[in-house]
Please model this.
Amino acid sequence: MADQAEQLRNIIKSDAGAKALNSRPMARVITVTSGKGGVGKSNTSINLAIQFRSRGKRVIILDADFGLANIEIMFGTMPKHNLSDLIYQHKNIKDIITWGPGDVGFISGGSGIEGLSNLSKGDLTYIIQNLAQLDAMADVIIIDTGAGISDAVLEFLVASGEILLVTTPEPTSITDSYSLLKALNRHPRFSTNNTQIKVITNRVENEREGEILFSKLNVVVGRYLGLPLTFLGSVPQDKLLSQSVMQQLPVSLAHPGAKSAEAYSLLAEKLIDPDSDRTLKKRGMAAFFSHIVANKRNL
Model:
């Protein structure tokens, strides 16, 4: 496997790879995850994307919940192509982007990233060059991972420099969030110094409940894992949010005055705060993907 890893390094260092990775300032890649399903992770991804877009940011969501189609269902849009078509059919990156409500782009993950370790040098070069185009097309790329602790989820988290962890007051959500962080912390290629983990407490009665929920998780994580967490904010329980899901529209568009939409607006404001942005090391999408491939090749 060492020769495969060296092959990937050579692609990235080559003229084509260097041009792809250094053609412009890197896009900000934000990975949204959760310890279990049904806690509002995809809603968070979509509504943050809408809020970023309303502030003039160009946004693309990668639905990395392979095998499911949460983003496209919530957007009410059926994509013609997905990430697998880029990887295995050599479709152009522009061919696999579907534009949803609010002029937010999204890419369906398709069947996932299985088999990446078997790709040829030409295939990898093609993929990296195409993904580098996303850095020119978007200011922010949101990765909506699958829920729970799987190898695919961990690979995306390890490759990310900025993680948003969504949790709820349900005891199972809290314990599963801890389990996910424990698995991430044990990953041999996870770097605490190069990763920011921000927590969003969802479906709380008020901000105070959200703060208490974060404090409980933070104490346990700090004591047993030594991981630094940041409390980003809360999203309240909101009937209008549930209604918007049924309407297949983000609540930020369907009901912009709703409590949940206003909460997503505040979260977006915190994320695009200039001081916060300066502390981030932007990797860009091509480098993000290269990191995943390297993991698949046992680098």
